[in-house]
Amino acid sequence: MRLANLLDERLVTHSLNATTKREAIAELLDMIRQKHPEYNYDIILQSVLDREEIEDTAYGRGVAFPHARTNAVGEMIIAVGISRLGLLDKTPDDQPLRMICLMLTPSSIAKLYLQALSAFATFARDPENLDKVVGAGSDGSVIDAIWESGVTVEKELTAKDIMNRDVATVNPEDSLKKVANIMFRNRLSALAVISEDDRLLGQITDRDLIKAALPDFKSLISNLNYSMDVEPFEELLKREDKILVKQLYTTDQEVVSRDTKIVEVAAMMLFKDLRRVYVVEDDKLLGILLRKNIVNMIIRG
């Protein structure tokens, strides 16, 4: 099914009056109210704003997806607004918001909601799509532009739908110092190790860094009276420029394809107690899936 099939021209505007995302949400809710006057819009607005408090739904690339799962509505409702000049809100990539997709759904149809949200994210990844909807001269033309994009609502969520595409990476010749700096700066517990042609070679984790300082850690656990002549972490710091990734990284990472179903990824994570899996195609790194991605997308929406 095409993404455009989910849209109603009565709930699409090619010329938002709003100057902020908060105002745009209110404006789109007013449009929905005209079609569905039976709903309690105080509850709906609060649900959307509560979701915004948890995490900003500005996706980047000029698009935001404010949304809420609330039983204050009886069916999935999508409203789309286009701002020609762009909204004033701060965004992750500093691009002004120009397309707001407001999604409301009851808990009973969460699957279609997640699929639609994923389809809108796919639409937003192509900058030409945004240019076309912003340039639309009528509400119907916005829907036409979404139709012409060819984006479909898939039957099943797959790895490509929720994976992180901006993966923090290092190469085998990088130093331990660089690894530690990237981990600290981005609050990460692991980095992908890739070759010059972007092939996934392995991963280096925070555990690998600690093991570099405590190579004889098993003796420490088995013998509480074990003593060291030197402070291991201090010694590691002295050599952080000389220790290379190729001396520490492991090749025990788990990989999936872009079309692996999310339920299969989740089952793998549970069965093998994984915190992350890498998404590859022909050994090339495409993205990474973390357990929190699944929690954020499926549990929190």
- Which CATH architecture of the largest domain would you pick? 3-Layer(aba) Sandwich
Give me the strand/helix succession.
Answer: EHHEEEEEHHHHEHEEHHHEHEEH
Structural class: alpha/beta
> Can you give the mean pLDDT?
88
Shape: elongated
Number of E-type strands: 12
Helix count? 12
* Poorly predicted tracts of residues: none
The biggest beta sheet is recorded as:
6 strands, mixed
- In the CATH scheme, the class of the largest domain would be Alpha Beta
**Quaternary structure of the protein:** single chain
- How many domains, in number, for the residues? 2
The Cα radius of gyration reads 24 Å
Question: What would your notes on this structure say?
Answer:
It is a single chain. The protein has 301 residues and is an alpha/beta fold. It folds into two domains: 3-155, Mannitol-specific EII, Chain A; 169-300, CBS-domain, CATH 3.10.580.10. Helix content is 40%, strand content 17%. It has helices at 21-35, 41-54, 110-124, 127-134, 139-148, 159-162, 176-186, 206-213, 217-222, 232-238, 262-272, 291-300; strands at residues 12-13, 58-60, 63-64, 67-69, 77-82, 99-105, 169-170, 190-194, 200-205, 255-256, 276-281, 284-290. The strands form three sheets. Strands 1, 2, 3, 4, 5 and 6 form a six-stranded mixed beta sheet that branches. Strands 7-8-9 form a three-stranded mixed beta sheet. Helix 1 packs antiparallel against helix 2 and helix 4 (127-134) packs antiparallel against helix 5 (139-148). It is elongated, with a radius of gyration of 24 Å.
